[in-house]
Specification:
Blueprint lengths: L2 H34 L8 H43 L9 E4 L16 E4 L6
Antiparallel strand pairs: 1-2
Helix pairs in contact: 1-2
Length: 126
């Protein structure tokens, strides 16, 4: 893993915390605005529309941040899965019969670059 990839989940958690705090601040501002308007209660249609618009924008913004954070997390998981796939792919430069090294049979983890098998040429092809 590169250093940037290792930091991404941590940064994602920080971004989620920031988004949560921003959402809380926005909610408190709406509550504060509601408290301040008790004395001068405005029941006009324009005010109701503005309150609904503000609430909708707050909800949409929060949902967008959530989706963006989920997307970031999924990209990190995809990068990690791609890296694991690259590390688990065996390739051969030639055709032949595979003879496994019995030392590694049943092992789940083998160091990268370890010779785990040999390929013997097919006798009928030579």
């Amino acid at each position: 893993q590169t250093q940037g990839t290792a930091e991404e989940p941590f940064l994602s958690q920080i971004n989620q915390s920031i988004a949560g705090l921003e959402s809380s601040i926005a909610s408190l501002k709406i509550q504060q605005a509601g408290i301040g308007s008790v004395a001068t209660y405005d029941n006009s249609l324009a005010t109701k529309i503005e309150v609904l618009r503000t609430q909708f924008l707050q909800t949409a913004s929060q949902q967008q941040l959530t989706v963006e954070n989920q997307l970031t997390e999924l990209k990190v998981q995809l990068d990690q899965a791609t890296q694991r796939l690259e590390n688990n792919t065996l390739t051969s430069p030639s055709k032949g019969i595979v003879h496994l090294n019995s030392e590694f049979e049943g092992k789940n983890r083998i160091p990268t670059g370890t010779e785990i098998a040999q390929i013997f040429p097919v006798i009928t092809d030579t």
